[in-house]
Every structure is written in C-alpha cells, then in structure tokens.
Amino acid sequence: MHIKRIVIQGFKTYKNTTVIDDISPGHNVVVGRNGSGKSNFFAAIRFVLSDQYTRMTKEERQGLIHDGSGSVLSAYVEIVFDNTDGRFAIAKDEVVIRRTIGLKKDDYSLDHKSSTRIDIMQLLENAGFSKSNPYYIVPQGRITALTNAKDSERLNLLKEVAGAKVFETKLKESQKEMIKTKSQREKIDEMLKFIQERLADLDSEKDELKNFQEFEKDKKIIEFILYDRELNDVTTAIEAIDGEYQTDVDSSKRFVGELEKREDTIKELEDSIKAVEHEIKLLSIDENEKSDLLRDVAKELYEKSAELAELKEFFKDQTKSAAKKEQLLTKIQAKVDKNEKELASKEPIIQELKTQEAESNGELSTLKTKQSILYAKQGRYSKFSNKKERDQWLDKEIGHIQQVTQTQTSSVKVTETEIREIETKLKEIEEQADDLQDTINGPSAQAEIQELEQQVADLKRQNITENDERKTLWREEARGASILKSLDEEVRFAQREVNQTMDRQQSLGLESVKRIATRLNLSGVHGPLGELLTVNSKYRAAVEVVAGNSLFHVVVDNDRTASILMEELVREQSGRVTFMPLNRLQPKDTIYPDSQDCVPLIKKIGFDSSIEKAVKQVFGKSIVTINLERGYELSRQYKLSAITLDGDKADKKGVLTGGYQDFRNSRLETMKVKQSKVKELRAQEAELENVRRLIQEKDSLILSINDQISHASAEFENLISSKQPLKSKLSSMLNEKFALRDELKYKQERIVKLRSSIAASSTKLSELEAERGSAFIEGLSSEEKQELARLGTDISIVQKKLIVIQDKISQEENECESIKIELNEVLKPRLNELMKSKTSNSGDSIKFADQSHVEELSEHVESISEKKQVLEQEIQDFQTKLSQKKKESKKLSEKLEDSNDQQRKIIKKLEKYQHDSEKNLSRRALLTQRRDDFQRKIRELGALPEEAFSDKVLSSKTSDELLRKLTKITKSLDKFSHVNRKALEQYLNFTKQRDGLVERRKELDNSEESIEELINVLSSRKEDAIQKTFTQVSKSFSEVFEKLVPKGIGKLVIEHESEEDEEDDNEDEDHPMTQSEESNINSYKGVSIQVSFNSKHDEQQKIEQLSGGQKSLCAIALILAIQKSDPAPFYLFDEIDANLDTQYRTAVANLIHELSGNAQFICTTFRPEMLQVANSFFGVMFNNKISTVSEINKEEALGFIEGQQGGNNGK
C-alpha cells in the first residue's frame, strides 16, 4: 500500500486546487525554497492521517484555511491510496480519504461518502498506522527533540512503542475494580450484622402481633360489610341517574337529528327562495324587455297601418274633391285634439306613479342596504380579533363610500347640467322645426327626387332596423349587467362561506396569492389543492379528514414561483400560505393492500394529471375501509392511514381518531359552490363583453348609415327646387329631436338611479359610522337580529308594493305610448301633409306610391301585427310565470318561517334536556365521588379474609349492630397501640435480605479472585511486551547504526535504579537478560545510547558526549530502528538530514533508499544527497502568497537545492 495521489485546496498557502500525481511507491523527495510551503505540504498529509489536528477552536480552523486575496471559506485535503495489496479492508484497488474543514465544520469522507474521524482512524490503524508508534511521520523538530531527550524519555518512548500504556490503563481499571469490590464486601458485612440483630428483636414481637391481627381481621370484615352496603346503594343511585341521563341523551340525539334535518330543510328553503327570487328578477327583466319591444312594434304598426290606410284612402279617394280632403282634415284635427287631451290627462297620473315608484325604490334600496350591512356585519366578526382591526376596516370602508358618494354626487350635477342643456336644445329644435314646418311649401317632387327619397327611406328603414337590433342589445346588456351583479353577490357570499372554514390569515393569504399571480402574470399558479379536486359526496368526509388544511395549500409549478409569491406576501404583509411546488415533491409509490375491505382514497379523487404529485403527497398513503376495526389492522400492517366514510381515522402509528364531525359546512362543498359561481360569473362577464362588442359594432354601423342618410339628404337638397331648401333641414331636425328625447329619457333615468344609489350609500355610511362607535361584540346583538328579521318582512312588502306600481306604470305608459305614436307619427304628419296639400298640389310624395308599394306595405303590416301578437302572448306568459313564481316565493317564505318556528321549539327542548342533563351529571359527580371514596376505603382495607364474603352471621346484622360491634373492637385494638404491625413482614423481609447479601458476598469473593488473576496476567504481558520491544529495537539500532557508520558501533542500554544493576548491565549488555533481570523491569529508570564512531572495539561514548551532528545521526538511527521493529506502510520525513554532515547525509539517503524497497518514503530536504538516490522529485513554488506543487526531474530538483544554498551563502 502506498500514496498514489494527493489533492489540496484552500489549505494554508495552497489556495488553488493542487494535484500531486504519479507519486512513486518507493523514495520521493520534495524540494523548495524556505517559506515556499514544503512544511505546509507535509502538514496537509498529517492533517488527514494523524490525530494532531483535533478538537480545534474556530480560530485554529481559520488558521488552516488560506488567508489571502479572495474569499476561501473551506479547505480540504484528499489522499488516494493504492490498495492492491488489500491492507485496507475494502474490496477496491484505490481508497480515497478526504478531510474538509471550515469555520463551523470538520468532515471526513471515505471513497466520496461521508464518514467519521473514529472510523477513519480505525481504518488506518488496521492498515498498519499504529498509534503507539508515532514515528512514521517525522516533522521538523522531532529529530532535535529526540536528540536532546533524557534516558527516561527514551524509556517512555520504548514503552509507548511496546503498547505498555494499554496494559497500564487496563491495570489501573482492574485495581479500581478491586478497591470497589473490597468496599462493597465491607458494607455487606456491616449490613449482615445489623440484620441478624434485627431478626432477634422481631422474633419476640410475632406472638403479640398474632393477637392483634385477630382483632384487626374482625374489624376489616365489619368495615368491608358496611362499606360494601354503602357502595351498593350509591352504585344503584348512579345507575338510576345514568338511566335518566341516557334517556335524555337519546331524546337529545333524536331532537338533534331532527334539528339537523330542520337546518337542512331551512337551507334548502333559503336556497329555493334565492333561486325563485333570481328567476323572478330574470323574468321581470325579460318582461320589461318584451314590453319595450312591444312598444316599438306597436309604434311601427301604428305608423305602417296609418301609412297603409292613407295609401288605400289615397287610391280610393283620389278622384274626390278638395271638400273631401277638408272633411278629412277636420276629422283628423278633431282626433288630434282628442288624443292630446287624453295624453294631457294621463301624464299627471304617470308622474304620480313614477314618484311613488322612486319612493318605493329608495325605500327598498335603503332596506336592502341595511340588510346587507347587517349580513356583512354578521360575517365580518369572524375576520377580526379585536375592535382595532374592525375599526381600521370600517374606516377604510367609510372612506371608500364617501369617495363613491362624492363621485356619484358629482355625476348627478353633471347629469343635471346635461339634462338642462338637452332640454334647451330640444326646445330650440322643436321651435325651429315648427317654424320650418309652417314655412315649407314647395313644388311637387320630380322623379329623381322621388328616387332619392326612396333611397333615404330605405336607409331610414335600415337605420330603424339596426336601431331596433341595438335596442335589443341594450336590453340584453341591461339584463346581463343585472345578472352579473347578482352573480357577483353570490360569489362574494360563497367566498365568505369558504373563508369561514379557515383562519383569517390563511383566507387573506389565498386572496393575496390570486391577486399577486394576476398582477405578475404568473402562469405556474394552479390554485388551492381543494379547488383542483373532484370528489364524490360519498367520499367527501374521508377526503376532508385526510387532507385537513392541506386543501388550502397552493399548488405551483416550481419553487421559484413559490419564492416570488412568498416574497410578495412578506412585502405586503398579507397573510400566510403553504405552497406545494411540483418540482420539489417526490412522493413515493405506495403498495396498497389487495383486499376487498379497502380501496385507495386517491382512486376516488378526480384531478388533472399535471398535479398528480401534489395529490399523491397528500392522499397517497391513505385508504378507505369498511370500518375502523378493519382499518386499524390494515394501517398497522401496511403502514398506511385508514379512513372510514364517516371520517374515523386510524393512522400507521396505531392512533385512532373519530367521533361526531359536523360536515354540513363542508370545505370541499363550499369550495365547489364558489368555483361554480365563479365559473358562472366569468361566463356571464364574457357574454356581457360580447354584447357590448356587438353594441359598439351596431353603433358604428348606425353611424355609417346616418352618414349615408346625411349624404343622400344632401343630394336630395341639391336636387329639390329652390322652394324646398328647408325640407332636408326639417327632416334632420326631427331626427335630432327624437334622438335628443331618447337621450333625455336616458339621462333622467340615470339621475334617478344615481340619487337612489347616493341614498343607499348614505344609509350604509350612517350604519358603518354607528358601528364604528359601537363596542366590539361577537356576532349581532338581539336588537340587530330582530331588525334583520323585520327588514326581511319589510323588503317583501315593499317589493310587492313596487311590483303593483310598476305594473300600473307599464300599463299607463303603454297606453300613452300608443297615443303618442298615433299622434306624433300618424295623425300630426298626416295633418301637416293635408295642410300642405290644401295650399299646394305639388311636393307630396304619397302620390308617387303605386299599387305594388301598397301590397308590400300590407304584408309588412301583417308581419308586424303577428309579431305584436306573439309579443303580447309572450308578455302574458311572463306575467303568468311571474305571478306563479311570486306565489311560490310567498309559499316558500311561509314554509321557511314555519320551519324557523319549529327549529326554535326544538332548541328550547334541547336547552331543557341540557339543563336536566347538567343537574343529573352534577348529582352523578357527587355520587361518583362517594363511590370512589368507598372503593378507596375498601382498597385501603387491603387483602380481606375469606370470612368477609362467607360470614352469614355478620351479613345478616343491621348496620347499627355492626357499628356497635366495630366500636368494641376498636377499643380492644387500642390496647395494642404499641404493637409493631409490620413485625412479621419485616421478619420475612430481613430474612430475605440476609440470604441475598450472603449470596452477593460469595459473588464478590469470586470476583476478587478473578481481578487478582487479571492483574497478574496484565503485569506479565506488559513486562514481556517491553522486553520484546527493547530487544527488537536494540538489535535494529545496532544494525542501522552500523550501516550508517560502518567503522563504528552503537547500542541501547537500559539503566536501572541501583548502581550494581547498572554495572551488571554494562558487563552483560551484549547478552540477553536473565529471568531475574526480567522480573525487575519496574526498576528501569531509562534507556541510554552508547556509540563509537571510529572503532568497533574502543570504549563507547554516551550520546551526551557527542557533537550535534552525531547526536542527530543517533536519533535518526533510533527512529529507523523503531520503524524496523514496528513497520508502517509509508513514512513522511520533513528535513531529517538538516543537521547531518555530508558523509552521514549520504549514508542516511542510501539507507532510506534501501528501505524504500519495502515501504514508501516521502521526504522533504534542502540537501543534494537525498536527491541522488530518490525515485521521484517534486518542487514547491510560491507566488503571490500561493503555493503550488509539480513533478520535476532530478536536474531541476538539484537546481532548487543549489539556488537555496546560493541564497543562504549570499546571506
């Protein structure tokens, strides 16, 4: 075994990765200038292989890490060993040991796997790196220390090599155990003496104790009978109370079940009422749309019917005289006057009804606002933990409402200004139109003019058609906006329901995550896990119990997305959320039981394959079982969590969890409802957006048609005679007048809505300000609950009243609209035309009509008439459905009120049962305490004699008789107050202790003999090891010294305490020690070195008499001798030849080269002799405070040495 490669990084001066390859298994020499890092290279190897660098402080570890430019936070040294000889007990040809050190770590690794220092040191020791022989690594200064060592220090060194410390440690442990054994034996003797004395005393107390025990037995029997009677009475009373309590519990369960059914019924009724009211709202919207459409159709029908009648009248009465026209003019004028009077009489009625409608709408808005505020307040307290949080939220809401109110007030002022401007403009246009109507009187139209009129008429018809379609779209927009508002409220309510199933921080966090993901456009956010699952209601309870709060964990694509979201949440301080990054989840595949009694829960959950990891993480280790007992067996057997359909759970550790759970407010169900509502809301938003897009398209098309009409009208004006220049202008004015009327109506309706909204906002503001000043109370007060109930009734009344008013308004407006259409679109135009015809026979376009136009108009009138009938029928159907739904809503409301009454009655009954149960439980607690006292007293009686259960005489006596007898026995027992009641028990215990102590003393005697034998054996082995080691090292020292100094001789001599022994040692130093000498090893006081450098026969000198170089040579010889007696796989010598003369350096180099045939040597030197015989050469360079090592050839190595010596000579 030898070192093949060394890798150093960050260690001392070796900042960069330094790799030393191709290290020879024989003799290797490392050269370099002083301070270049040779010793650091040597220290790097010691850092891995020796125990020197252990238990270091932070400062000491910092000292081992490179300290220069650039930050180095850790360092490591890696040594690769050739293990082809198998000295390491690892089945590999190469073994890699690495040690890494940092400011807070110190780690070892073996073959790139983490290991401990103890394991590495054990591995090295097993491979031949003995702890008792530290001289396979010889750092600088070790030679000098050994050179100047005392004889006693050299003796200790030989003992350490021989392993004497191990024997001494074991001897000390054995001697300590011997002392401990003697101490225990003395204590046992003392205890035995005390027990014998105590047994003698207890023997005299036994007879008196027997008499006492007879009385004591009778007392126990009587006390037992009395306690047992009392216990039976109390137990009977407890059983009676338990029966009553169980009856109450059963009744309570029945009523609780009925209460739950009632709650389900109430919830169903409330949902049904909401659904019916939603249908009523939609039907009302549809009815209003159809009514508006009917008015438009009626207008068109009146117009076309009048036109058709006129045409027919024209062709029929074309030959009649002007007198006939005059008669017709008079007739039409009379009808105009009649219609105007009728219209004037209806306008005050409509105005009054609209005033009532506005008042009712305002009242309804106020009531609904109050109701909404109370509902919001009821759900709001779950969001806040104290008044401060609530007031902060209220301040924010009040500010928002004030801002909205201010905006709406500004809008009202702007709209009022716009209305005044429109009214002024409308008045001007009407006046101008009247003037033009009076002044226009031109010649008859020419054929070309008729063609242009026809073109304009076609464009106008197209314009009317497009306007009708746009009005239809407007109605759809209004209907969609109403539905959208309703859906938005439902989504908010569903969100509140979901929020109530989690804590406030979690709900706030989920809302923030959605907002942040939308703002940052994060596509990798899938959403809460619960929203991504589809679960059958049968397995919903099981899924919720297994998942718990994991249902609200947000699934994201990777940890980067999660980090972005968490940073934003922290920055905004907006809640807490747990994320599940799919790229980090690695759920293990689960083996499920092959049983008909269970099914994997994950198979009953629907989910997208993209989130499979998240679902497996939560539900992969769970199964659904038929019952908890079977689930417990399977969970323990397969290490899974078993869950029943009712939510009872058995986990893999055997913990059972179960009992009643209220799943009425199911998390999955509320999340599912919310998702459904959000989906409907998004669909409605898309549909409304599409309608608005179509409206924009219609606006553009109508604008284009209007442009075409204007262009055609301009051409018409250029073609008509000079007497008709104002006709086109009049037509334009009339169109503008109608448009302004429509716009005026829209503005007036808008201002009514704005004022209603301002009133509602003011009400809400007042309520919030009142709540702002109120105390922080959980939930609503009783007055607020009563007000909430009253508001529901008032809203229903106002809604019914509003429906009646709206029906009347609709009826009156329809009638007025019909009169207006007939008056403005039929009678007045006809009257004007007759007036014109009276003064001039030209310019009347009706005379250009032909019979084909009459037929076409007749078909059109018939089509419109059919459409009007269909609309009337549809409106009637809507009204019928509305009536039915209102009746249904009323009936459901009555059922809801009845169910609420029944629920209140049940709650009162449950409260009564609860009160009775509490009383019974209180009585039972007192009785249970008495029962426990009697049971305790019976237990305190201890073991009872058989007579306590079979003595019929005592059992037949009354309690009073037994008490009298018990009193007599107690008095008799008073005489034995001095008796030792535990005499017999103590006698038996002491006898048992005596026998045990005798047995223990025998064991200690045997143990003492074994320890003495072990001490003798260890002493003998220690002496043998020391003697054997000295003999081997002494022999090896002589051989090594002779090779280093062929003309000389060297020996090791053991020094004894006595002079005579020293003389004997000197006389017999060439002979083995005798038996008597071996037994006197403890008298050794040191090991001296005696050498001769010039003769094998001259008197030898002690090491103290030698020169410095000679001393160093002797120290090297001793080190090599020790290594020969206890060889290691390789050796590290750091400048061991530094203090030698040239001839001895050569001898040492040759000897090391000779020894390198059996072991690897790595030496550092700055002398050339070592280079002459080495196999491989490595140079250490130092630049910019960084050391590097590279393989060099022999000439380069000699160049290093010559440069070093030249530098030293120069100095």
Structure description:
By secondary structure, the protein is α+β, with helices and mostly antiparallel strands. Among the domains are: 2-129 and 1128-1210, P-loop containing nucleotide triphosphate hydrolases (Rossmann fold, 3-Layer(aba) Sandwich), CATH 3.40.50; 501-658, Alpha-Beta Plaits, CATH 3.30.70.1620. It has a 6-stranded antiparallel beta sheet. α14 links the parallel β15 and β16 (641-643). α7 (322-380) packs parallel to α16 and α7 (322-380) runs antiparallel to α17 (782-839). The longest helix is centred in the first third of the chain and has 153 residues, at 164-316. The protein is flat.
Helix content: 55-70%
Mean pLDDT: 77
Secondary structure tally, helices: 28
Separation, N- and C-terminal Cα atoms = 43 Å
| Largest β-sheet summary | 6 strands, antiparallel
Oligomer: single chain
CATH class of the domain at 2-129 and 1128-1210: Alpha Beta
Number of β-strand runs: 25
State the CATH superfamily name of the domain at 2-129 and 1128-1210: P-loop containing nucleotide triphosphate hydrolases
Radius of gyration: 57 Å
Give the percentage of residues in beta strands: 5-15%
Low-confidence stretches: 441-446, 839-850, 1059-1079
Q: Which overall shape is indicated by the principal axes computed on the Cα atoms?
A: flat
CATH fold-level assignment of the domain at 2-129 and 1128-1210: Rossmann fold
Q: Structural class given helices, strands, pairing?
A: alpha+beta
CATH architecture of the domain at 2-129 and 1128-1210: 3-Layer(aba) Sandwich
In which order are the strands of the major sheet placed?
2-1-4-5-6-7
Subcellular location: Nucleus
Domain SMC hinge: 523-635
Biased composition (Acidic residues): 1057-1070
InterPro entries: P-loop_NTPase, RecF/RecN/SMC_N, SMC, SMC3_ABC_euk, SMC_hinge, SMC_hinge_sf
